[in-house]
Amino acid sequence: MNDHNQKQLGKTLWNIADQLRGAMNADDFRDYMLSFLFLRYLSDNYEMAAKKELGRDYPDPNAIGNGGRSPLSVWYAENPDDVVAFEKQMRLKAHYVIKPEHLWTSIAHMARIQNDELLNTLQAGFKYIENESFQSTFGGLFSEINLSSEKIGRTYADRNAKLCAIITEIAKGLADFSSDVDALGDAYEYLIGQFAAGSGKKAGEFYTPQQVSDILSAIVTLDSQEPATGKKERLASVLDFACGSGSLLLNVRKRMGPHGIGRIYGQEKNITTYNLARMNMLLHGVKDTEFEIYHGDTLNNDWDILRELNPAKKPSFDAIVANPPFSLRWEPTEAMGDDVRFKNYGLAPKSAADFAFLLHGFHYLKDEGVMAIILPHGVLFRGGAEERIRTKLLKDGHIDTVIGLPANLFYSTGIPVCILVLKKCKKPDDVLLINAAELFLKDKRQNKLGDGKNGTPDHIGKIVSTYQFRTEEDRYSTRVSMERIAAEGYNLNISRYISTAEEELEIDLVAAHKYLVDIEKQVREATAQHNTFLQELGLPPLPLSEG
Amino acid sequence: MSKYKTLKSLVARLRDDLNNPTKPISLLLIYAYNRTGKTRLSMEFKDAGKRKTKKNLTGTPDTLYFNAFTEDLFVWENDLEGDSMRRLQLNEKSSFFNAMTELALDETIAQYLSRYADFDFDFTYKEVQQGNETVAKPDFVSFEKDGVPNIKVSRGEQNIFIWCIFMAICERMLDGHESYQGKKYLYIDDPISSLDDNNAISVACDLAKLLRRAATRKNVDGAPAPIRVIFSSHHALFFNVMCNEVGRRTDGEPKVTHKRYFLHRPNGDGAYTLQATEDTPFFHHVATLAELQRAADPEKGKLYTFHFNALRSVMEKTASFFGHPSMAFCLKALDNEEDRALFSRALHLLSHGAYAIHEPTEMGEDNKELFRRILREFITRFEFALPGVVATQSAALAPAPAPEEAPAQ
User: Fold this and answer.
1) Does ipTM exceed 0.90?
2) For residue B54, which phi and psi values (nearest 5 degrees)?
3) Mapped to the 3 state alphabet, what secondary structure does A330-388 carry?
4) B178 vs A205: CB contact, 8 Å cut-off?
5) Count of pairs with CB atoms under 8 A, one residue in A, one in B
6) Tens digits of residue pLDDT in B343-385
7) Is 0.80 surpassed by the pTM of this model?
8) In which order are the strands placed within the sheet that holds B87-90?
9) Chain A hits for B109, Cβ within 8 Å
10) What distance in Å separates residue A483's CA from the closest CA in chain B?
């Protein structure tokens, strides 16, 4: 599926969302819509595997006797004794099982004929997928999808009718598009982006714009010690401790290839978003055994595996990426001061958890790993506790690169942000500063970064290659010695080190004089010529300036 | 009652109140009619806090304030030429916006705003040269509603938006954010000059919550580090809700020490009188009554269930003024047995504090009638002299006079 089709699919779905959501707010509708998309993906994938498994025994989908039923329903009805063995086999091959009546084809069929049982069937289907489809648990995957919500309708009949309408539209919209994994996954991605853009500040929180995500994943997949040597062969593990819908992790995976990463780890506090992330992984063809997404609070370190006390078993990651909520208010307790994550650096202030997030991630970074995190510019220069943490990180040689990005890249806020690249061990003893704040494309509400495609300048490539080769360029990038940084009081405000002030143009007075004299001469000639015409017409001439 | 010849001496008195070493007051609530000089008082208070003294050698301002001057930090740009890029321009010179520069406050602002209004906003930043470096400062805000960008919002919406910025900043100041270190006082003057009553009530509740936090604030080491607060208003209902909310004892929360004043300028000359209203007649309660009477007006008024609450509060104060422990005293004075029963039932049904306040609902016709009857009898029986106040009140409804002094900073 090419770029154009993908966009088309996304747009089709977005239009359906726009038409059908009625009085429902966009966030709520997003969750319904994405769940249906997810169901359709699981179903297609499953049916394909079933077809392969059953070979010639797979019933003809267009057979007249089916009466609109899905081929698998037909097969189940005809071979009741073989069902157990079949499902066992499917668990091995596809990793999961879906009952024929819960398959998207069946559900869409029920919607088309406006079957009264649609809602009940759908509900049972979601429950089955959560609890029994997969070996490993997917408990609560649809917990935020309340099919009996008043938002869809007042009575069962109302709700059933509304769902019929929504599902029929989606089925129609999807019919023209192929069901290959990436297409649906990308459509899912597109929708998440659209919803983030369309529903105000609060919903935009968890969304990392694709281009920023591209930069982060490019950085952490390059060789950590010698980025100039290019991309790593393999990452054993990657972590995003504030993973949102998981798109940043998926972007890293995309860059490494489907077999380039050992295991993907993500943590998310918001339960709806956490469920989105799990669906997003599956939708992009990541097997349930290849990732682990945990629902919990990063700052409290809710995740058991991260609290391993035995230092030999302490988890650590090759690559860490994160776009945590900016300057989140948090409530550090006294005990937090002794927390291994913060002990050596100090606690981030109550008014902004930025450094708490950073230190959390950094604690779990492998000695030869790379971490790239997006934070507001303020972390580069704020005083107090943050200044102390920053100073310690700099003195210990952990801050490798600072990239200043343009303002207004995010939906949640227009504040300018930066990327910090951190390493436990780094070779160069200077800090690379990149001022990428001035290179961007203006878009309606948001600024964008060019990626070199469709005739745009390659802002993203420039940032990545500057990091990769640690190049210096006037007004854009510089390598700053630790002595200089110390002299600046460990203030990292990029404008202190890279001047972007426009040089004033020198005016050549002689040339300017000549230019003005020439203009004056042209005026006089033009006026004189014009006057000859006026004279011929017997009209009074224009006055000539004194010369 | 105390008299003050100048604003300066009045400010000295207020600062003394807040700094009283033996009996510290964390919160002053001042009621004053419009045109008494509230805004000028707040400016004088702020200026007193940045004079160079022995204690404050650098002249660092010690007050974060919200008043008409703060609202003036925002100026509408209507884009008369293109008639499309309408936006609210921010005065970049103000240190008020420091936290905007350093922290992403958008979400906090959006959370507050979603409680009062339903439009979206976008801050645009610009780089400003400061010494040898550049710093991003908020440049302007544009508004959006139902997908339509760059809309003009009403004056009331604009003010509530600015108020939400203030609340967000306040929050960070109470958290001890670097940019507002050294601030000891919060001065809030009439935050609701163009709000309707619904928003007035919810703003008052949110604000009271914040002020409680200010009064009971602790520093990093857990030692008390309160921010002292002065709050002034001409809006009787708003003031009354504030008094109730702040005075209410809440389980598990420490009591907030506060004082209530009625500020007056009897002859319109330079002299001010400041009257503590705990132990002398409750001026603001008289004003509340006047407000209630306006609401009860069958033609122009609008009665909400929370008005029962306000009426009860005045009745309780009246009873205690006469030395009686409960408002049963006032109810007894109403000679109709049936009304008495009805009224206490109405109070119990309709005045479930937070619920009634957060979601104001209009009274049913029967309750309206009941309310009017009780109010009328109460006012007659206790011979409240309302007319004068009512006159002043209607004057107070006129828009606040434009601030006369130097531009805000």
Assistant:
1) no
2) -60, -35
3) CCCCHHHHHCCCCCCCCCCCCCCCHHHHHHHHHHCEEEEEEEEEEEEHHHHCCCCHHHH
4) no
5) 100
6) 777 666 665 544 444 456 677 788 788 888 888 888 888 877 6
7) no
8) B74-77, B87-90, B133-144, B120-130
9) 201
10) 18
